[in-house]
Amino acid sequence: GVPVAVVSFTSIGVAVVSFSDGSVIVVSFSGVPVAVVSFTSISVAVVSLSDGSVI
After folding, report:
1. Above 60 in pLDDT, residue 48?
2. Distance of alpha carbon 31 from alpha carbon 35, whole angstroms
3. Which residue of 10, 17, 38, 50 pairs with 25 in a disulfide if CB–CB is 3.0 to 4.6 A?
4. What DSSP letter does each residue of 8-27 carry, written as one string?
């Protein structure tokens, strides 16, 4: 689908990434809840978290 994602932080250390095609990814991490979602292609997304980890 169209590469659009919404990152919702339900609490510190938990982020829910909702994609426009309906898929949902739950990301758990430690540190300040900041994430950047970069789409490398239509179906691939790279989530870079503020603590340095990449999903």
Report:
1. yes
2. 11
3. 17
4. EEEETTEEEEEETTS-EEEE
Q: Which helix (H) or strand (E) holds 7?
A: strand 5-11
For the chain, count helices (H), then strands (E): 0, 5
Vertex 44: Cα angle to 19 and 7 (nearest 5): 35
pLDDT tens sequence across 22-33:
677 676 666 555
Residue 10: Cβ-neighbour burial (10 angstroms; 0-12, 13-18, 19+): exposed
The residue among 52 and 28 whose pLDDT is bigger is 28
Cα separation, 11 vs 29, whole angstroms: 11
Q: Is the pTM of this model over 0.70?
A: no
